[in-house]
Fold these 3 entries.
Entry 1:
Amino acid sequence: MVDLILNIALFIMLAGILLTLVRFIKGPSVVDRVISFDVMSIVSIALIAMIAHSVFRVIYLDVALIYGLLSFLGVLIVSRYLERGL
Amino acid sequence: MNILAIIGAFVTLTGAIFLLLGSIGLLRMPDSYTRIQAGTKASTLGSILSLLGLGLVHPDWLGKIILLILFVLVTNPVSSHIIARAAYFINVPFTDKTVVDKLKELINAQTVSKKYKIEKGSAERKEGD
């Protein structure tokens, strides 16, 4: 029961990533691409936590934490570069 | 099978539905600013709910999951704010339905007052000379 509901949630998250990828490809400006990258990385944090449940290893939560940290720094650096140059 | 795991699975499902709604909002909104708002708020709530449900399924992982939730809760509004600020200052166009732009009035008022202050300061210096 629990595994079935968690699998359904995992496929819903994958559908969300695919819909975000459409905006990433056809976005008219740079800002749309940056924000869709941000949403993709947030969904990926939840997805990595689901993978940590399905292979039953707690070490993957650390991977999710570092992934979120690096994507936050990437978004910050790209938007500072867009605003005033490096 | 205990009841706490089933509650956690349903909370995770709710969070996944919020993530999907955030993605649909990112796809359908007419403007960059509304896309920023829809994408970031819905996905913040969705990731918090799905991580919390996973913490209810595994109660011994709850410390790391609460650390991850606090991290998402702190960094996600900061990145949304700074993307919106960059989008405003590189003149990304608004949609046609935009009715108010408070930041433009505020920036005009600030530049006018700064120019006035500079002129006043130079006038005082001339009087001193």
Entry 2:
Amino acid sequence: MAARLMREGQLVLPLALFFACFVFAPLSLLGYVSLHTDVSLQQMGFAQYAKFLTDRFNLGVLGSTLWLGLEVTLITLLVGYPLAYLHSIAPPKWQKVLILMIVLPLLTSSVVRTFAWLVILGRQGIVNETLLALGLIEIPARLLYTQNAVVIALVQIELPLMVLPIVTALAAIDPNLSQASRSLGAGSWRTFFQVIVPLSAPGVLAGCLLVYASSVSAFVTQTLVGGGQQMFMPFYIYQQAIQANNYPFAAAIAMILLFSVLTLVTVINLLARRTRALSHT
Amino acid sequence: MRGESARSRLERWSFGTVAGLLAGFAILLLIAPTVIVIAVSFTSGLSLRFPPPGFSLRWYEALLTASPDLWRAARFSLEVAASATVISTVLAVSAALAIARRRDLWARFLDSIFMSPLMLPTLALGLSLLVLFNLMGSGVSKLTLIVGHVAITAPYILRTTSASLAQLDPVLLESAKSLGAGHGFAFRTVTLPLILPGVAAGAFIAFMMSFDNVAISLFLSDARSEVLPIRLWNIIESNLDVRAAAVSGVLIAVTAALVLLMERIVGVSRHVR
């Protein structure tokens, strides 16, 4: 027994040390840097946090970032769930095709997928050209560099992260259950909302978690599709650190973003534990 | 048996229509951008107009003949992604062997720690590593960049390897041992062959994620060595050069080919769930 524990300790130690040195040490260091009032790191204090949390512009950036995450999560759930459901009822051959259609974009460079939206929503993009051709508008509309554009692009980019956990959850549901529900007289809608959806809740929560965490920190899409007018937390961190060289403030912004995401992750994990407990009773 | 009532038929029809439309929209959303980028990359024009005014291979030619910057960035990205994947695979697979089948609190705790980079804002991690390396006085280099990429790719390999280990029948290992096989021998002849597809799928996903990473590379690469996604990002942000479409076309084609190949060999799609 002791020998086994020793062996396992040796196996897990390298990764544990790596994480201690290159994930937790730097993040703690970042917290320490954020607690300095001056750029030369002489004075300690909460000045950076006070500066962030008392300024309307800063709070606006935080608010729009968290709101962006929420919007993207809800829309991906709305279109992603039906896709996962379609996968669960499709014949095996089509299931394979559908999964590849979901996985392929996931592994395609996110810069490339963001670039696609610049082509679609640009002044000479397909949307503007269509609207012009139909005579609905006379000059190209400004579609890019708006919050909505960022939302649409992110929905497309994060969609696979939502669909895959739901696919897994749906695959684990006994098909006899919806049969039973129907033969007891429940219609399609009722069966769906009262049998299928509750049983797939763990997958839905996992998907929401991944999509939210990923979309609030989606630097590339936020900067390219959002442009200069739309400021979100990741770009703000980058700008303060690299362009303004204000490391304490950048660190404080990063800690605030980190804390917001971790709070949400904790809440959803607690929810997930409760739904799991419910589905076991 | 009686026929369906009008109400249940209406209900089935309305459910099918709504679910079908939403799922169809999702499929369109997944595919359309890729198709549009590929179409634009063959444009004969100077802008990203869609539909293109005519078709030509001029932007792919420009990639071959007039883009040393992109080739250099691509080579650097490949080196970083390959090194990070190798290190990450060794670390994550051995960790998975220790903790995947354990229910103890410490094993679950370590597992959630190792998976945390998937949830953390990667930009914050990038910035924190930059602060660390500056403080240590090492500055940023290819090595520090690889370190950052190992941190964000390890979770993918840990997840697929753990899942393969969870499906491994413990009876197989026990019978190997009762037949006199030592730990090393049983590992090489029983465990490793059975988890290899999971490890390979994880390593493949890790490689692609590293190759695509911007948030970490933004902080940890010096001015001379740019990774491909950042080069591409700069091109797109500064002047929307149509070469960006040609690079995208190449990346889409290579990704699709690799995914299909890996699907054949190890069944990647089974491991991403």
Entry 3:
Amino acid sequence: MRRATVPLRQRFDRIVPHLVIWPPIIISCTYAIVFSAWTIWVSLTRSTLLPDYTWYGFRNYTSMLATRNWQIASANLAIYGTCFVALTMATGLLLAVLIDQRVRAENIFRAIFLYPMAVSFVVTGTIWGWLLNPSIGIQKLVHDLGWAGFRFDWVIDRDKAIYCVVIAGAWQASGFAMALFLAGLRSVEADLLKAAQIDGAGAWRLYCRVVFPSMGPIFIAVMVMLLQFAIKTYDLVVALTAGGPGLASTLPSIVVYDFMFQRGELGRGSAAAVMLLASLAVVLVPYAIYRSWRARRVAAHA
Amino acid sequence: MPSRLVRPAIHGVLLLLAAAYLVPLLVVVLNSLRSTDDIMQTSMIGWPRTLVWSNFSETWSHYCIAEHCSGIRPYFVNSLEMTIPATIVSTLLGALNGYSLALWRFRGDTWVFGIITLGVFLPEQMKLVPWVIVLRDLGLFNTIAGLVLIHIVQGLSFTTLFCRNYYTSIPVDLLKAARIDGAGFFRIFWRIVLPLSPPILIVTVIWQFTGIWNEYLYGVTFAAGEQQPITAALIALSAHISEAPLYGEQSAAVLLAAAPTLLVYLFGGRYFLRGLTSGAVK
């Protein structure tokens, strides 16, 4: 009896790890691939309220591109993406440089600038919605303080509502940029700094000529992450402006949801989702290539 | 500028900026203690004239959200019931995934890892329609269990990424020695890898908890009415009361919704930051 159980036990020992290893790996791989392929497929079919897998070619794409919603949303994404990334990076860099001056209570400052990243976009959007609301927010406060002509009503202004999203987004994400920039500033080689200081370079020149140029990869990484962030932005707008007034601050991510679940047009909504993915790929694929190129170059130098 | 003024100036600017960053939080905290009349007469930004503690009890158990007058408590509980199991399971499976990808190398493991990390970057919008169909077929539509499932599968990409990158720093010789001693897959995981894991597991748990608690799109798409998590309830709340705003109670609701992740940040900020940076740069 005993002789028979030993090989069985060994076989069992060899099989069980596979039973444990593979399911989660297979699930996460199929999830990434099958779900994307599925949405791409739906985008090429006649699906409306329910999936209907009759081939429809690219007609969902052409008709989506022709809608006013999509056109406004993509123009808004261009404005929001550019301004959000620029403002967030500028603020993050300013904060990082200030904190890098061996300030007192550095940890407290860092914690304060980063805490917005811990709250949800829904919370951020709701609070900023109040602050920017002219009848109860900042404008009202300034009026009550006696400056009756003060105007800050962007959130209800068709041309400026999208900039409110930029402000709230930058408030939330600039601490993240700060953290990455600070890590970059701290990793500049001390020898480089010393040599520049011996040459008598002032603080301003030291940063512009020596420190920032050596942080190129970090600037690119932060920019890519923030762009990715911008393209995916959804809840922030829903909570802050609900895409309004009218369609003034709508974004592609909102158009996707609107078509899929409010208008019951799964085909066109999926086409919009695929275009959202494509815009993300435009940012991430070159970045991935750049990173592997850099990794190879570093490996070659080592 | 004379050099002895530079340092005070830097501190001054930092203090001003810090105050500006704190204003939104301060506004919510103060408004949660003010009456709505007080807020409407002045503005959102101001000190309470009298402290109104009842905002919290009102918002917690009496408030009406889309015809249900049970306060935000059920939604808060939903969020807990969704976040805690999803965080634990996705972290454990991620650790296991990371362990087998990093230390039990097999043919094509880097490809598998690459595909899994794709899931980190895919926008949620790409997965909405498949999830609708999958949840409907499993009978999990509009249930907390459905949301837990979504967050486990979705979270696996992140947790695998974190753990795999951490485990690659464990020296392979350590494992070889253990294997020569006759230790198998589980014993090595249990005796060698897990004891080395607390730092990355804390990072992963904090990341998952924060991410799942704060998530909105899945919550609003796959749950309705009283099954929704707190983020979706907050949005429903502000839509519902836009005719007759109740800013005081609403501020209390916002504060309660933000409190769990803020507390996690307060006590685990260092780990939160590590998750952020490794999730971003890697």
